[in-house]
Design brief:
The complex is a heterodimer. Chain A is 71% helix and 1% strand. By secondary structure, chain A is mostly helical. In chain B, 69% of the residues lie in helices and 1% in strands. Chain B starts with a strand and ends with a helix. The model of chain B has no long low-confidence stretch (mean pLDDT 93). The chains are: A mainly alpha, B mainly alpha.
Chain lengths: 151, 149
């Protein structure tokens, strides 16, 4: 059992904050710019490809270190994904997300940043996103219940 | 393909991307967690049947709090850049619903799959990223150029 301590919460807030500042600086928190990136056949703004590229270069170094460790620098266990199966829900879910992203130009991180920036339209998106996540959990728990009853 | 040089912002894109990478690096190396936003929020609204300890709830809320205060901290130093949402309320509601459902069903979004997962060379994340990027490109093509919205 890992105890909640000040350091754990400090690094969590710091990560979220730096992540959010990065989204704002990168232009990811500007839905019009995101749609400009997704619009390949119009006048294409390639900026967001550079955002991802830079993030992945730094991420790759950090995750290479993380993979070799059993515990984090704070002594917490490493929660790295182990699932390697490419299944239907991964594909269909990602497809649905891509359609939503293409409609509004907002993904979950920027949705929270827009909320903090006091955007009313951002709030509408955020509430809908939470409902969407809730619906998924509801369906999943029903599916699990049904599976248990069959057994 | 036509490049939109007027809106191309390579330096802020690279610097912003580096900050996103740095945040993901700190989060995995210190907290031992993947900085996947949809997974972090989604973990808060799971049914009670799946056990969540208070420490599990608190780090999630702490990370989200960091994201929410980012624009407020930014404004202490300079004005926020343009955050332009042209979509109608109906479009935003539909987009939000399928983004929420899709990211949970596909176990990740741009941050978890696109940044962290690709950094880990996870085959699932590489596939997921290719799928949601393609779906995004196609959706914008249909909505802007075929329907002309």
């Amino acid at each position: 059992m890992q105890q909640t301590n000040f350091k754990v919460l400090f690094f969590a807030v710091a990560s979220g904050l730096i992540f959010g500042l990065g989204l704002i600086l990168a232009g990811m928190a500007n839905p019009a710019k995101v749609l400009g990136f997704l619009d390949l056949s119009g006048a294409w703004d390639p900026s967001l490809a550079l955002v991802m590229g830079a993030a992945i270069v730094i991420g790759a170094i950090a995750f290479a270190i993380a993979k070799k460790r059993h515990l984090s620098y704070l002594g917490l266990s490493m929660h790295l994904p182990t699932n390697r199966v490419i299944d239907q829900s991964l594909i269909l879910g990602s497809m649905a997300f891509g359609i939503g992203w293409g409609l509004a130009g907002i993904c979950p991180g920027p949705a929270i940043v827009l909320l903090g920036a006091g955007s009313f339209k951002g709030l509408i998106f955020f509430i809908a996103m939470m409902i969407g996540m809730g619906l998924y959990e509801l369906l999943e728990s029903r599916k699990n219940k049904a599976a248990n009853q069959v057994r | 393909m036509l490049i939109d040089w007027n809106n191309f912002t390579p330096w802020s894109a690279l610097a912003g991307g580096a900050l996103i990478g740095l945040a993901s690096a700190i989060f995995v190396l210190f907290n031992g967690r993947i900085a996947g936003i949809s997974g972090i929020i989604g973990g808060l609204i799971r049914p009670r049947a799946i056990h969540l300890s208070t420490s599990d709830i608190s780090w999630r809320i702490a990370f989200i709090a960091g994201l929410i205060i980012a624009p407020l901290i930014w404004q202490l130093f300079t004005a926020l850049p343009n955050m332009q949402i042209d979509s109608s309320y109906v479009t935003l509601a539909i987009a939000g619903l399928i983004t929420g459902f899709g990211t949970r069903c596909g176990s990740g979004c741009t941050s978890g799959h696109g940044v962290c997962g690709i950094s880990l060379l996870s085959p699932r994340s590489i596939v997921a990223t290719l799928v949601f990027m393609s779906a995004g490109f196609v959706t914008v093509y249909i909505s802007r150029h075929l329907l002309g919205a």
